[in-house]
Amino acid sequence: MTKVCQIGLFGLGTVGTGTARILLDQAELLARRAGSRLELARVCDRHPDDLRGLPLDPGRVTADVRDLLDDPAIRVFVELIGGIEPARSVVLQAIAAGKHVVTANKALLAEHGSEIFAAAAEAGVAVGFEASVGGGIPVIKTLKEGLVANRIETVAGIMNGTANYVLTRMTDDGLAFDEALAEAQRLGYAEADPTFDVDGIDTAHKLAILAALAFATPVGPADIATEGISRLTPLDITFAAEFGYRIKLLAIARHRPEGLELRVHPTMIPADHLLARVEGAANAFYLVGDAVGQVLLHGPGAGQMPTGSAVVADIVDIARGIAAGVPPCGGPFEALAPVPLRPMEALVCRYYFRFSAKDRPGVLARIAGILGDNGISIAAVIQKGRRSRAAVPIVMLTHEAEEARVRRALARIDELDVVTDPTTVIRIEDPATLAASANAEVTPA
Q: What class of enzyme is it (predicted)?
């Protein structure tokens, strides 16, 4: 008798539609690979009359999620509505009902992952979340399985397609931030309210999930120093190119002897680095393990079918376990133990500064003097001619400096009567620092 794994799908939006389409269109292939027939038994959506062009039985589509939760035949509950509530409550109810859960909800896992995985472990069910980070890029599976023999030293990457598209258009075509963002919205790469994308919040959610997985420690978005890209200008893009760099919104989690370094911010990376070549709405994940060395995963980080593909991959994994009588249980992490977090003020790296200053004698000397007083050494300077009567740009690259010293120096500089606007600061990552090994264990707190 053919084994059947019944699935309940909560949310028939963009990703839900892609997931349903793959389950329906690839039913025979998936049955061979899963060891059982994957049956889309029930679908719940706010608009049950809108089937999105899918060949669904209208009698199996409902607006009441209880119809899925209370159905004992449904073994896998797929949450694709996004957001925190009611997703959190519904997922916990599904777990309490003994159902395995698959979700693409990065915000939910970043904020409440520990609670959800603890509940799943107690109930003896699995939580699949490959689609929560990286769309169709299997970065979760790579960390959980492919690199399981490694102590992970660095997780970095371009984790938001909207921000990367905007920066690509600013770099390649000289668009201002507002112009590039408006184009991204027209093309569907950006939401009507793009705050989460351009302010780095979406990226911080993804980094929280990856860091918890890679370093076996609880991490939340509040632990991650986060800056967005909205203050960048074509002038910064141009200056970066003159120094041989490109600017990307980079997420970085690095294993240090003093603790974990967690940050999201615009970053200058060498133009010939693999991450610098990630264009458009693509994502890329840069992983460093003590045994494997450097690994780069690149591909579509969002979208209906790529993300639906990742959701179905989790469903197949769970169905295989059910068919074999040994379903996976609980969460994906080894025992989580708090470790020290390295404060942002302790970061040591190179910096790009762009000052807007009045064109007067001695201005450069005053700025350099304050930097010198704070132990910040200048590596290069570009001072362009007057662009307006108000101010001229002065651009500096530094040698390595401590973040706390940089903040003190810039606070003084921005108070000078010759400085007209707040200083633009961009941190610089070179290949050697991205790939650097920690060479020491992080001691649990």
A: oxidoreductase
